[in-house]
Design goal:
manganese ion binding; EC 3.4.11.1; 8-stranded mixed beta sheet; 34% helix; Leucine_aapep/pepB; 2 domains; elongated; 20 strands; protease; 15 helices; manganese; 499 residues; Leucine Aminopeptidase, subunit E, domain 1
Length: 499
C-alpha cells in the first residue's frame, strides 16, 4: 500500500478522515470539513452516540457532488495520546476503509496538550496504517471481499509534510522487515523448509548483507551434534545461515567493534519427532521457525534504515520429523561445545538447535551482546498467555533495556528468573545435561539449558511462542503472523547502540 504526505488542504472529493476528541470536540481539520459540508459532520455527530472516545468512529455519508464519505475517528482524551495510540489509529483507519475506497485522505492537526507535533503524529499514523494493511493471500485463487474499490493509498495531510515523510522513512523500512517476517512465518512447510528458508535469507545480499549458508557436511565437521540430531528424521537437510550487517566502520578488532548477535530457532515444521504432537493444532507448527523469521526480518530492517551498528544474525534451520532415521528418546548427542545431552523428549528440540547456534555464534564472533529468539515452550503461554513474550537474561540492566524498548513499540516482554535451583533440574545421570526438566517451570528450565551455551557474554533469551501468531488480530497486526520481535529489537538497537 502506498503511503504519501501532503501539506494541509481539505480534499474536494473522495473519502476523508478527521479526528474528534473526547466530548465531541472537533480538531481544526474536522471543523474545516464540517464547514465545507454545510455542517453535515456535526449534525451527524449530534444525532449519534459518537462522542470522540478512543477506538470509536462515525462514518458520515455526505451529499453528492461533495466529499462522499467523512470518517470521524475518536482520539479520546489528550492525556492518552502517544505514538502507540496514533499507530493504532492508523491501523483502524485502514480497517475501516479498506473495502470502501481506493484512497484514504487523512487530515492531521496539532493537538493542544499532546507531546507530538502534527508531522510526528502523521508519521506514527502512517506506520500504523502500513502495519495494519498486511495480508497474506498469495494462495487464494478467488479473492473475497468488496468488488471494485480496494484501499491502495493512505494520504496524510499535515503542516511541514516533508518532515513527516522524513520521520516515516526509516519506520517504513522497519515495517518492511516486519512484513518479511510475517511472510516467512505464514508460508506452509511444504514451501518453506531449511533450504528454501536459507534462500529467502540470501535475498538480503542485495541490501549489502553478507550471507553464508553452512551445509550438513560443514556442521558435522564443526561437531554440531545437537542441531543435526533434530534434523536426522527429515528428508530436508539442516542449514545454518549466518548474516553479516556492517553499519559502521570496523576498526581492527577493537572491543568497541564487537558485533551484536541475534540468534534464531528455525524449525520449519515441528511434528515433535518420535515424541509426536497431538494432531489437533499441529498445522500451527509451520511457524515454529518464528525466531529465525524475526532475525531475518530484523536484519532486513537494520539494513533498510541503514542502522549505525554492526550485527550478525545466525539461524539454525531444521525440520523435526518422525521416521526410521529420527532421533529417539534416550539418545545422547554431543554438542559443538563438547557438552553431552540426553534427549528425553524429541519435542524439546528447539533448545538443541539453539545450543549449537549459540555456541557457534559465541565462538566465532565473540559478540558483546547476544539475543536469541525462539517459539520455545508451550509453558510460556501458560505463564503469560498471548500478550507478553518471556524474557530471560544474565544481566538485569540489559533485561530492563529490552523491556523499555518493548513498551516503546507495543511488543511487551516480561522478565522471568534464572538460578541454580532451576539449573540442577536439567542435570542428567548419564550425560552432562538432559533436554527437559521436571513438570514445573518448563520455560525457565529451557532458558537455563540455553544459558549453558552462552558463557560470559551478555545474553537474553526471548520465548515468543505465545506472540508469534495471532488468531484474533489487532489494528496494526492482522490475524496470522505478527512479526513480533522485529520492532522490539530494532528499537533496542536504536535506544542503546546508536546513541
Amino acid at each position: 500500500m502506498k503511503i504519501s504526505f501532503a501539506n494541509p488542504a481539505v480534499p474536494k472529493a473522495g473519502a476523508v478522515v478527521v479526528g474528534v476528541l473526547e466530548g465531541r470536540k472537533l480538531t481544526e481539520s474536522a471543523q474545516a470539513v464540517d464547514d465545507a459540508t454545510g455542517g453535515a459532520v456535526m449534525r451527524a455527530i449530534k444525532a449519534s452516540t459518537f462522542k470522540g472516545s478512543k477506538n470509536h468512529s462515525l462514518t458520515v455519508m455526505t451529499p453528492a457532488g461533495r466529499l462522499n464519505r467523512v470518517v470521524c475517528v475518536g482520539l479520546g482524551k489528550v492525556k492518552d495520546l502517544d505514538a502507540l495510540a496514533f499507530q493504532t489509529l492508523g491501523g483502524r483507519i485502514v480497517s475501516n476503509l479498506k473495502a470502501h475506497t481506493a484512497t484514504a485522505q487523512v487530515l492531521v492537526d496539532d493537538v493542544e496538550g499532546c507531546p507530538l507535533s502534527a508531522p510526528e503524529i502523521a508519521a506514527e499514523m502512517a506506520l500504523g496504517a502500513k502495519l495494519g494493511s498486511y495480508t497474506f493471500d498469495k494462495y487464494k485463487t478467488k479473492k473475497k471481499g468488496h468488488v471494485g474499490a480496494k484501499l491502495t493509498e493512505v494520504k496524510l495531510f499535515c503542516k511541514t509534510s516533508a518532515k513527516a515523510q522524513a520521520l516515516f522513512a526509516p519506520q517504513d523500512k522497519v515495517a518492511d522487515g516486519v512484513f518479511f517476517t510475517r511472510d516467512l512465518v505464514s508460508e506452509p512447510a511444504n514451501v518453506l523448509y531449511p533450504e528454501t528458508l536459507a534462500n529467502e535469507a540470501k535475498t538480503l545480499t542485495k541490501m549489502g548483507i553478507k550471507v553464508e549458508v553452512l551445509s550438513l557436511a560443514q556442521m558435522k565437521r564443526l561437531g554440531m551434534g545437537a542441531l543435526i540430531g533434530v534434523a536426522q528424521g527429515s528428508v530436508h537437510e539442516p542449514k545454518l545461515v549466518v548474516m553479516h550487517y556492517t553499519g559502521k566502520p570496523v576498526r581492527g578488532g577493537a572491543k568497541a567493534d564487537q558485533p551484536v548477535a541475534f540468534v534464531g530457532k528455525g524449525v520449519t515444521f515441528d511434528s515433535g519427532g518420535i515424541s509426536i504432537k497431538p494432531a489437533a493444532g499441529m498445522e500451527d507448527m509451520k511457524w515454529d521457525m518464528g525466531g529465525a523469521g524475526v532475525v531475518i526480518g530484523l536484519m532486513k530492517a537494520l539494513a533498510g534504515r541503514k542502522a549505525k551498528v554492526n550485527a550478525v544474525g545466525v539461524v539454525g534451520l531444521v525440520e523435526n520429523m518422525p521416521s526410521g532415521s529420527a532421533q529417539r528418546p534416550g539418545d545422547i548427542v554431543t554438542s559443538m561445545s563438547g557438552q553431552t545431552i540426553e534427549v528425553l523428549n524429541t519435542d524439546a528440540e528447539g533448545r538443541l538447535v539453539l545450543a549449537d547456534a549459540l555456541w557457534y555464534t559465541k565462538d566465532r564472533f565473540n559478540p558483546h551482546t547476544m539475543i536469541d529468539l525462539a517459539t520455545l515452550t508451550g509453558a510460556i503461554m501458560v505463564a503469560l498467555g498471548t500478550h507478553y513474550a518471556g524474557l530471560f537474561s544474565n544481566d538485569d540492566d540489559f533485561a530492563w533495556d529490552l523491556i523499555k524498548a518493548g513498551r516503546d513499540v507495543g511488543e511487551k516482554v516480561w522478565s522471568l528468573p534464572l538460578g541454580p535451583e532451576y539449573d540442577k533440574m536439567i542435570n542428567s545421570s548419564v550425560a552432562d545435561m538432559q533436554n527437559i526438566g521436571e513438570r514445573w517451570g518448563g520455560s525457565i528450565t529451557a532458558a537455563q539449558f540455553l544459558k549453558r551455551f552462552v558463557g560470559d557474554i551478555k545474553w537474553a533469551h526471548l520465548d515468543i511462542a505465545g506472540v508469534t501468531w495471532s488468531k484474533e488480530g489487532k489494528p496494526t497486526s492482522p490475524k496470522g503472523g505478527t512479526g513480533f520481535g522485529v520492532r522490539l529489537l530494532d528499537r533496542w538497537v536504536k535506544n542503546t547502540l546508536e546513541k
